[in-house]
Amino acid sequence: MRSLPWGLRLGSIALCVQLIGCGTMQRVTAEPGDYDDYRRAKLSPTFEARLRAGWYYLRARPDGDFRGEVLAWFGPAEERYVAQAWKSRARLTTYLEVLPDGPHAGEVRRRLAELENEARSAAAEENSFMRRERDRQRQYDEARRSRAALRATVTEWVRRLATADEYGKPIHEWGEDFRREFFETEPPGLCDVSQCVKTMGVEFLLPTHEGLRTERANFDIVLHFSDGVLRASTLRGHGLFSRLSESANLQDVGFDDLQARAEAIGTAVVVLSAMVEPLMPHASCSAEALSPTVLLRQCEGRKIEAIVGENFQQPDLLEIGVVPDPGAGATTAP
Predict the structure, then answer these.
(1) pLDDT per position as a tens digit, 74-114
(2) Residue 45 carries which DSSP code?
(3) Stretch 177-191: mean pLDDT, rounded?
(4) For residues 34 and 24, is the Cβ–Cβ distance under 8 A?
(5) Sequential DSSP letters for 274-312
(6) Looking at 18-27, 45-54, 184-193, 222-231, which range is the least confident one?
(7) Would 196 disulfide with which of 5, 16, 139, 223, CB 3.0-4.6 Å?
(8) Contact in structure between 319 and 307 (CB atoms under 8 Å)
(9) Rounded Cα–Cα distance for residues 289 and 192 (Å)
(10) How many CA atoms lie less than 13 Å away from 15 in the CB half-sphere?
(11) In the predicted model, what is the mean pLDDT of the chain?
(12) What angle (nearest 5°) sits at the alpha carbon of residue 61, between those of residues 59 and 67?
């Protein structure tokens, strides 16, 4: 390989000196601490560390050899960091950790206070919303339980009356449990010569567009006597089947809405069928129901019949009792 002429080699050396001379001369002539601080501002591993080192250099080295270069980088970089962190509490907090007395430290503290206030307000609103939701859910759970309680009350009395051994007996021969449930539990049953009546009222909560509304199902448990002995029993109540329907499908049934009433009766039949199925299965006890009867189960000498009140002045009836044996003679009092 041919070597360059001596003149060209001198020119190349001179060019290299021109290209790197300034930086090298700064490094050579700078105080050791000045150059070390400059290196940290340029070469620290993270952006935040470079910001901290740059800010330190500008404050600690007002006459530093690299001040112009550090200032040219730090100013835009710090402003860009603040702009990007403006909506982030975490990044603004980091700014104050890195530059507690930085150029925008006052603005950052005010902005951080705003974000913290917004966060507290949002948290308070969230907590309020969650409380309202919990309260609403608690109310709706209570409403659901109240509706279930109505169906359970009717179901229990249907069971008691359909399985009672008291038919054909005078009151003094009734079982203790049946007498206690009818006469001693509130409200107590009252009797005259031909019947005993226990008036029941069960409140339940019904969801509407305006919120939960309290409804009340009023019905009587009537025990019918003939010749001094119990012959039959009836659950009767104005709009009783409508109330049972409301408890099941949550649809309000107004007294003047005939279409809603018709649909409610259909739902009530489903509810009543579920009540009586364990007592008188459809497969073995179903019988033809002729209007105004909507449900009839009859077998093994017992009967359950649901009769719709044909207008709002007539009560809905659930008649329960013993089916007379046509081949037997008249029943006499014991």
Answers:
(1) 999 999 999 999 999 999 999 999 999 999 999 999 999 99
(2) S
(3) 95
(4) no
(5) HHHTTTS-HHHHB----TTEEEEEEETTEEEEEE--SST
(6) 18-27
(7) 223
(8) yes
(9) 32
(10) 6
(11) 87
(12) 95
Structure tokens at 4: 């360059």
d(CA 298, CA 313): 28
What is the percentage of the chain residues whose pLDDT exceeds 70?
87
Cα 134 to Cα 138, 142, 246: the distances in Å are 6, 12, 24
C-alpha span between 104 and 84 (Å, rounded)? 13
Among 107, 113, 198, residue whose Cα is nearest residue 153: 198
Check residue 312 and give its pLDDT: 75
Gyration radius of the chain's alpha carbons: 46
Residues in the chain: 334
Q: Which residues contact 228 (CB under 8 A, 6 or more apart)?
A: 170, 333
The pLDDT of residue 254: 75
